[in-house]
């Protein structure tokens, strides 16, 4: 079996991945492809017009055929031209508007892509880390690791750890002059800064919520004591000077919105680096070795299953 080059299916998948997945969210490469198709349609309709003029004195219907061809490609050219200059941007805008109507879930924030799959593999992570270091974009990788390793905080499910987490993110990645300062738009940075300021002001309330809800007051030994402890805990939670249910709901929505914007910007930066990374020989060798290992593992499982089939 020849393993010198990847399979055709992998190459097709890789091409589609570069065009669609790595182009997210603004799809500049897809827009460039539409420009090329528009330019090609323009050339064909111009050539058809020239040829129809050349064959206008012929006895057959050749000139008529070229006129029809010119009309078809002129229509295609006009439609793509109008779509590129306005329609394409409108589609992207509507996509974002539709996406923002609902609160993002954990799977949406950290969607499984080839980049994520590469980072989940130790060898792939080390290769991409080394390449990011050469590209001076290591800060995006480290911030992404912070976000993906603290999903419960990012999704607003662990408010007690939120203040320290945001302090660490701000100190290491967001504030000016930080050791791994990331390049994100001002809107994303302002969302984080405002949330960080609000969380800092509510720090004592969040920590008190954690102690009241998760730290037992005593060790109940009987069902009656357990019931009394539950009532006491609920009453204590109601009397807290911290967050009420409405404040917690609003805070969770702000947390998800903030980290959704931050994770998207980080993914844009990482995808830009990853797009160059997949063209390197180290990544191609990594993919080839991984496919070979996967193929060998599948064959081993099939052989083991065939051996087990004869066991009585």
Automatic annotation (TrEMBL):
<keyword id="KW-0812">Transmembrane</keyword>
<dbReference type="InterPro" id="IPR044926">
    <property type="entry name" value="RGS_subdomain_2"/>
</dbReference>
<protein>
    <submittedName>
        <fullName>Predicted protein</fullName>
    </submittedName>
</protein>
<keyword id="KW-0472">Membrane</keyword>
<keyword id="KW-1133">Transmembrane helix</keyword>
<dbReference type="InterPro" id="IPR036305">
    <property type="entry name" value="RGS_sf"/>
</dbReference>
<feature type="transmembrane region" description="Helical">
    <location>
        <begin position="76"/>
        <end position="96"/>
    </location>
</feature>
């Amino acid at each position: 079996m020849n393993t010198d080059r990847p399979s055709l299916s992998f190459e097709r998948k890789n091409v589609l991945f570069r065009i669609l997945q790595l182009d997210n969210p603004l799809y500049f490469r897809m827009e460039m492809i539409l420009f090329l198709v528009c330019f090609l349609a323009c050339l064909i309709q111009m050539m058809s017009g020239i040829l129809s003029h050349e064959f206008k004195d012929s006895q057959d219907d050749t000139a008529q055929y070229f006129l029809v061809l010119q009309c078809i490609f002129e229509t295609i050219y006009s439609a793509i031209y109008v779509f590129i200059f306005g329609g394409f941007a409108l589609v992207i805008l509507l996509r974002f508007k539709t996406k923002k109507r609902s609160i993002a879930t954990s799977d949406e924030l950290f969607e499984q892509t080839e980049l994520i799959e590469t980072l989940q593999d130790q060898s792939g992570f080390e290769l991409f880390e080394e390449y990011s270091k050469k590209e001076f974009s290591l800060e995006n990788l480290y911030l992404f690791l912070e976000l993906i390793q603290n999903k419960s905080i990012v999704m607003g499910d662990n408010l007690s750890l939120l203040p320290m987490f945001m302090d660490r993110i701000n100190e290491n990645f967001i504030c000016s002059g930080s050791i791994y300062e990331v390049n994100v738009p001002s809107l994303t940075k302002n969302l984080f800064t405002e949330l960080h300021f609000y969380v800092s002001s509510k720090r004592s309330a969040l920590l008190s919520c954690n102690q009241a809800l998760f730290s037992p007051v005593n060790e109940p030994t009987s069902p009656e004591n357990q019931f009394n402890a539950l009532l006491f805990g609920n009453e204590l939670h109601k009397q807290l000077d911290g967050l009420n249910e409405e404040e917690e709901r609003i805070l969770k929505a702000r947390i998800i919105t903030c980290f959704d914007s931050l994770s998207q910007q980080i993914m844009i930066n990482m995808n830009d680096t990853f797009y160059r990374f997949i063209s390197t020989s180290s990544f191609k060798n990594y993919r080839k070795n991984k496919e070979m290992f996967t193929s060998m593992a599948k064959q081993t499982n099939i052989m083991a299953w065939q051996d087990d089939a004869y066991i009585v």
